[in-house]
Automatic annotation (TrEMBL):
Top-level taxon of origin: Bacteria
Species: Candidatus Merdicola faecigallinarum
Pfam families: PsbP_2 (PF18933)
Protein name listed in UniProt: Lipoprotein
């Protein structure tokens, strides 16, 4: 019973972090509207970004084809609460570990980088969990698309989680992939999450 409660709260925490990135009050950056639009042309370059490319693995399956975005996960991952707009998959071998995806329309007044900065501020200011330390940001070349990789730790009650979020824009929509689990399971989850991230396209 205790393990099930831990799993439930871990999923809730990860979802809260995920929702902090989407639907946040991005309109506060409206004053920088023109500046942000100029940034789009200059900052969408893939030059110099770390390259993430899909690695074929027979133990991974197509988990979701969501409005043109696909990703793979380990073949034993199970779908919980799957819907066309918000798929959630859990790792049956690691309690509390999950992969979640949400999407929203890209606000027209923001560049991709502006969206990321506004989203990070929203995550830091939410009250449902405590963000431990900084949110690190790395822009990457994810199968030929510029994406942001955000990494942070969060705490609620006595549980500490590691959360990695991959954010990318495609055809006017922003997709946020949240991969998370208990901090104690970091070494077990890292290779799995790395392959999932590399499969996003």
């Amino acid at each position: 019973m205790k393990k099930k409660i831990t799993i439930f709260f871990a999923i809730v925490i990860i979802l809260l972090g995920l929702f902090g990135l989407t639907g946040c009050n991005l309109l506060e950056n409206n004053d920088n509207k023109e500046e942000n639009k100029v940034e789009v042309q200059e900052e969408n370059s893939l030059d110099g970004l770390a390259v993430y490319q899909e690695e074929e693995d027979a133990n991974y399956k197509l988990c979701e084809d969501m409005e043109g975005i696909t990703f793979k996960c380990p073949s034993n991952y199970t779908s919980v609460g799957k819907s066309s707009s918000q798929p959630i998959y859990m790792d049956p071998d690691v309690p509390g570990a999950s992969v979640n995806v949400v999407s929203e329309n890209m606000p027209s007044m923001l560049s991709f980088e502006g969206y990321i900065e506004a989203s990070k501020a929203s995550v830091k200011n939410q009250s449902q969990m405590t963000i431990l330390g900084d949110i690190t940001t790395e822009y990457i070349n994810l199968n030929g698309v510029k994406a942001a990789k955000l990494i942070y730790q969060a705490k609620q009650s006595n549980m500490e989680l590691d959360i990695t979020q991959i954010v990318l824009e495609k055809e006017g929509k922003v997709y946020v992939f949240s991969l998370g689990g208990l901090t104690k399971d970091r070494e077990v989850l890292a290779p799995k999450f790395d392959k999932i991230i590399k499969s996003i396209k």
